[in-house]
Amino acid sequence: MNRKQYSYLNLVGLPLVLLFIILGISGYFLNQNITEILTRWHREKMILSIEGIGEVFDHHSRYIDKNKVRSIIEHFTHISESRITLISETGEVIDDSSIPFNSAHELKNHANRPEIIEALKGRFGFHSRVSSVTKQEMSYVAISSLLNAKTIVIRAAKPTKVIIHEKQKLFGFVIIIVVITLIGAGIMGFSIIKYLNKQVNLEYEYLEDKITARTKQINRLQELGTMLSACNSREESLEVVENLVPKLIPKMSGALALFNASRDLLEVKAEWGEAWQGQKVYSANECWSLRTGREYQTGHDTFGIPCKHLEGIEGQLFCLPLIAHGDTLGALHIIIKNGVLLDEYSDLIFAIGEQLGLAIANINLRRSLREQATKDALTGLYNRRYLMDVLSNEVSRSERHRKVIGVLMMDLDHFKRFNDTYGHDCGDLVLSKLGSTIKRCCRDHDICCRYGGEEFTVILMESTLDNMGVIAERICSAVRAIEIIYNNQSISDLSISIGISVFPFHGSTPEELLKEADKVLYQVKKEGRDGYKIKEFSSEDTEDSEDSNDLESKKTHKTSKKV
Fold first, then answer.
1. How far is residue 359's CA from residue 333's CA, in Å, rounded to a whole number?
2. Cβ–Cβ contacts within 10 Å for residue 323, how many?
3. Cross-strand pairs, 366
4. Cα separation, 84 vs 156, whole angstroms
5. What's the rounded Cα separation, in Å, for the pair 411 and 425?
6. Are 429 and 375 in contact (CB under 8 A)?
7. Which CATH superfamily is domain 231-373 in?
8. Distances in whole angstroms, Cα of residue 250 to Cα of each of 224, 253, 292, 348
9. Residue 557: pLDDT band by 50, 70, 90 thresholds?
10. Mean pLDDT of 491-519
11. Distance (Å, rounded) from C-alpha 494 to C-alpha 513?
């Protein structure tokens, strides 16, 4: 991810330049008006001073001598920081604060001074010129007043350079403020840029970490989907769930519960994290998510009560029904502890639940299609096609490991009579009952098949001749005990004939084994039906036997008959 940094030039440099230009323009206009402002201010200050002197003179009812006058003007000179001069109506200088006491007579007559003439005419007089005494540019302010009942002019004077100096001081102060402001703004701007860039870097790092984690989650989710879609059985999918789901949602414990075959209970089939504390078998009514058909959460300030199958478990509890193609297959249960917030993983859990639901539905569909393709719909046993595939594989495997396989070929006796007497529906009922009976009499790992019509085949894997005989006899006895009620009629007296061939003694291929078993089956039929027979062994087979008991059993022509 490209990181965009805040530029000091863009965010601080340009505003500082703009501020500097504004301050420069402001300084120009200030310079144009500051002299006039300062002149006016000093003039007002001098007016206040000489008016103050006039008021002092007015308040004295008695004669004011020269010493007192000198004291008064020196006092106001100090206050106003200006030169004070007292001038008579005729222009003679009475006193001047800038020259020694009693030296005023040495000064020239001021009758022709413009400010004196204006003051005698209209109370106030103003003028600026070079002083003949101080030889400086001076600003004069004069007013007419009374001293000892005589008209006089009180004049204040101040060098113009004072105003210029104050203007320079003011500008220096302004420049200092401007410089400090610019430096402060620059430092502050630099600090702000540094802080913003730091925050941007932190934000980018956070986003990069989040994107990296999200990408990892997506990859693992895709891996989970790929693995689940490649599973051929529910057991494989459960193994994938237990291995991959904890990597997707760490720091959480969970379980996957699926409906049983009768769909009245759910059973926990996979779990991860801590040992599952909830019930491992429960009904759909005990889970609020299955009752409502949507996710259900309790704990962490959520409104709700725990599901009955999760009662007593601390932490955040989350239940999600697994629904695919409108069918509810089970539920995903999550227990969250250690301060992990469910909201951070909720989308991921929903995605996992969706993939699990689809995967399990597809596995169920494939299993259903496989069963339809390999099983007989009437009896529920495997069909002839499946028989040939399995028998071929078992022959190859047994040949490698020197194992014995027994092939039982069976035929229901007088089946045509049932069809002719009771009809085909009754015949189907008999065949269905016969299929379940044969299945019940065999071992779990034996393969029971409907070969065609009323013929059935059983593959007895890794069996001895004695076991073959025991199973065959068990089938014959169970068939004799079958009783079926059809249209209020009791149907019994069923029997079956069984022929047995043995690999590798009676054939090396499935076709040879089935053919030999079928031959023995018809021998049983000829000899009276309702029994079983193992094909005879040749002398070569007997010589190849490694066990004396086997020798004896192979020599014996095994037959069972109903008594």
1. 17
2. 19
3. none
4. 5
5. 19
6. no
7. GAF domain (3.30.450.40)
8. 15, 8, 27, 12
9. very low
10. 92
11. 27
Residue 553's alpha-carbon distances to 389, 443, 462, 546, 556, in angstroms, are: 30, 22, 16, 12, 5
What is the CB neighbour count within 10 angstroms for residue 105? 8
55-92: b (≥16 Cβ within 10 Å) or e: ebbeeeeeeeeeeebbebbebbbeebebbbbbbbeebb
Q: 462, 403 in Cβ contact below 8 A?
A: yes
Give the CA dihedral 51, 54, 56, 60, nearest 10 degrees.
-160
Residue 449: what are its φ and ψ, rounded to 5°? -135, 155
CA distance 563 to 550: 27
Closest CA to 554 of 423, 465, 456: 465
Q: How confident is the model over 236-277, as pLDDT tens digits?
A: 888 888 888 888 888 788 899 999 888 889 999 998 888 888
User: 559 pLDDT exceeds 60?
Assistant: no
d(CA 543, CA 309): 65
Residues constituting the chain:
563
The pLDDT, as a whole number, for residue 550 is 47
Give the tokens for residue 355: 């993939």
Q: Which CATH number fits domain 375-561: 3.40.718.10, 3.30.70.270, 1.10.10.10, 3.20.20.70?
A: 3.30.70.270
Q: Which spans in 106-159 are helix H?
A: 114-122
DSSP bridge pairs for 452: 455
The DSSP H or E segment spanning 559 is strand 559-561
